[in-house]
Amino acid sequence: MATIESEYYDVLGVSRDASDADIKRAFRALARELHPDVSSAPDADARFKEVVEAYEVLSDSERRATYDRLGKAGLKNRGFEPYVDFGNLADVFAAFFGDDLLGGAGGGRQRSQRGGDLQAVVEIELAEAFTGLSVSVPIDVAVPCERCNASGAEPDTGTSTCRTCTGAGVVRSVSQNIFGQFVQQHACPDCGGAGEVLEHPCAQCRGDGRVVVGRKLDVDVPRGIHDGQQIRVRGEGHAGFRSTDRGNAFVVVRVRPDPRFVRDGDDLHTAVRVTMTEAALGTTTKVSTPAGDIDLEVRAGAQPGEVRAIKGQGMPSLRGSRRGDLYVRLDVAVPTHLSDEQRKLLEDVDASVGPDAYGSPDDEDEGFFHRLKSALR
Ligand SMILES: [Zn+2]
Ligand SMILES: [Zn+2]
Fold it and tell me: Quick one: which ligand is closest to 200's CA?
């Protein structure tokens, strides 16, 4: 029974009577177009998988005949499962095309390569995060060897052709996968892909072309930086194998907690303590900010736990010139020991003030919920 299913042919853009050569040509053209390193189309991965699945079926005469007669359902009944998990698609391409797909990328005579990234950590104070600062971070970094100019060869000595790969820089292996039998290329293990071996490795770097040195890395830490953020310093990472091309350095900034503040983004939270009578009578008190102390007016009748927002007294923003806010919670201290005389005085005050002076219960509730909301911020 014939089916009208033709999805796989449509995916490859070929007719149902296309020859094997037509199918292969169509696949290769699509694969080049959809290569993940080349295509910027967001659906390139998904389309590539469809293309591969179609090719898996149509390039195999038995599967193709099954598909022509019974469609996808027929393939499934015969145990064919599309090769869904491609892992790294670039690997699939390398397996299929060798290294000719992208003009030699991925293998071949690779003399050198960029070195790895370096990570360092610097710890600063909150006050330093407030102002920003320059730091000098000690690092151990692989740098190009000066004795051999990163070539790995002792000065005035040369190289000879690698015998393992006869100078090609690659060795081949044959493997079997869904596409059939493939010749795969790997960088030569003996010359690292260079195709040449050193007659006399450099005495300084033992042929590596790089040496590890202790250095200071100067980094500008911007004002407003947050704990755990990292700063990239281009080209200050490790040198590659026989390469002057260095990776990047990343400096992770740890901001030490300041016991006076809790940081919340660019906002800061702090607390001030006034006495019971100061809260009742009103006062002026000092409150810490990262830029130094400022005066805070405490109104008469201020309540314990009350939070005051002071605009623009928090941390500077990393972006732009605005500053976060400072939230100040009022702690009210109550005497813990009183003499008989003081006790009598307070009792007289209490009798004189009376319960009404503490505000209505409604006010109190509002105050309570306001404080609760502040505490839960
Ligand atoms: Zn050297
Ligand atoms: Zn070799």
Answer: 1
78 vs 75, 86, 346, CA distance in Å? 5, 22, 95
DSSP string for 174-213 = EEEETTEEEEEEEE-TTTTTSSEEESSB-TTTTTSSEEEE
Which comes out higher in pLDDT, residue 375 or 3? 375
Handedness of CA 132, 134, 140, 141 (dihedral sign): positive
CA-to-CA separations, 52 to 34, 70, 163, in angstroms, rounded: 11, 20, 38
Q: What is the amino acid identity at position 316?
A: P
- pTM given for the model: 0.58
Which carries the bigger pLDDT value, residue 362 or residue 152?
Answer: 152
Nearest to 112 by CA among 169, 38, 171: 169
Q: Longest C-alpha distance within the chain, in Å?
A: 111
Cα(114) to ligand 2 centroid in Å equals: 20
- 336-359 residue pLDDT tens: 999 999 999 999 999 998 888 887
Polymer length of the chain: 377
Taking only the tens place, the pLDDT of each residue in 277-302 is 999 999 999 999 999 999 999 999 99
Percent of the chain with pLDDT over 70: 82
Could you tell me the distance, in angstroms and rounded to a whole number, from the CA of residue 161 to the centre of ligand 2?
Answer: 8
